[in-house]
Amino acid sequence: MNRILGIELRRSAALGAALLIAVAGTIVLHATAGRWSTGWMALVMTQREYLAVLSPLAMAAGAWQSYREHRANVAELLAAVPRPRPQRMVPILATTALAVLVAYLVTLLAAAPRIADTARYLPPAAFAVVAVGLVAMIASVWLGLAVGRLVPALATAPALAAIGFALLLLAPHALPDGGFTAAFSPAMGMSMFSDYDTVDGGVSAAQALWMAAVAVACVVLFAVQNSKFAFAALLPLAIGATVTALVVPTGDAYLQGTLDPVAQELVCTDDAPRVCVSRAHEGLLPEVTPKARHALELLTKTSIVEAHEDTSTFSPPTSPRSRADTALMSITVDKHGRLAHPGRLEPTMLTGVFTSPLSCGDNRNFTVATAAAYWLLDREPTAGPDGLEFHDPDAVKLWKGLRALPRAEAEARVVAVHQAAQKCQDTTDLLSGGAR
Questions:
Q1: Residues 6 or more apart whose Cβ sits within 8 Å of residue 407
Q2: Could you tell me if 115 and 40 are in contact, meaning their C-beta atoms sit under 8 angstroms apart?
Q3: C-beta separation of 259 from 233 below 8 A
Q4: The pTM is what?
Q5: Which of 80, 185, 336, 393 has a CA between 20 and 30 Å from the CA of residue 119?
Q6: Which residues contact 17 (CB under 8 A, 6 or more apart)?
């Protein structure tokens, strides 16, 4: 069998297709590294989203292979071989499947070194996401083989690629985001809204079942000698669709399954003052700790003694429990997997300390909070990311007023801002009022 597969690999377009898919996937992933540099789950989900590119290429490769065999009259040649037709189909099915599997994995391995030093959290769900991607690639190339055999024309491969690309690209915009939609399209549901996103095991199982059903249907189409029996391919599709619809989570169950609570768990330093980041950002703890502890040193007059990462999410909405002794940090990751805008960590953390919680509504005064934070940092207030800072005139005016006061008076006003903010009180005049 190995000898037959070797011959099939050399004579078919499988190796060329594998090279094309691997190069395309590698280029796309590295060109968008900022989307997945936060960790392994982000990488495998982003790769799955790019099935919108890889799957059409696999379809085209399959269709091109069928066209080549039709043009070379390979079917007539093999018909002379005294073996059942299904057995004659196995080598080309196996070699094309092997080619796209290797190409998909090579794409993943080519991206992995970029985050190998920083990504620590590898959830089991990541393996399921990759497995579904592999099944989808097999289904895609076998779909191409089947369509190419039914329509053996030069234009079939590019037409199939164009149609597949258009459908996979437009589907996420045309269909509602939900369990049923994600189950029948392995590229959907992969967009990440936070660094704690995941894919529920039930969704991965449903996607794998549906893709397997499509693959079986394509084998039936590819193997039947008489096109009148092509309708037999509907049977695995019907069974697959039914089972998929039964197992996929929907509604709130699907929404809750998009968030990984383990990734949100805090990982803390062993020594005090404690600095904690989410498990998803565990690799950044050595980089974050010195900056967070310096900010904590500036807050010795307040009740703040610890710094935790803000693990709030928008969809589904979650937020960490508010604690009077804890400052929250917003952590973002750059395209190399390192802390993005490291110079902004302390200012944003301190500004958050002097800003009322979200539950306080309109009583949140960012200008006062910014002035207080930068007085502690002993530098003029700015806003915006590193290298793109711009001045906030109102905050600068308050900051200059603080610097003109005796240090004890200025410090008392800054502490008063923190205390008022925690009680949802208005802080507007606390820095600019008369002497206390």
A1: none
A2: yes
A3: no
A4: 0.89
A5: 185
A6: 57, 58, 61, 64, 65, 96, 99, 100, 103, 141
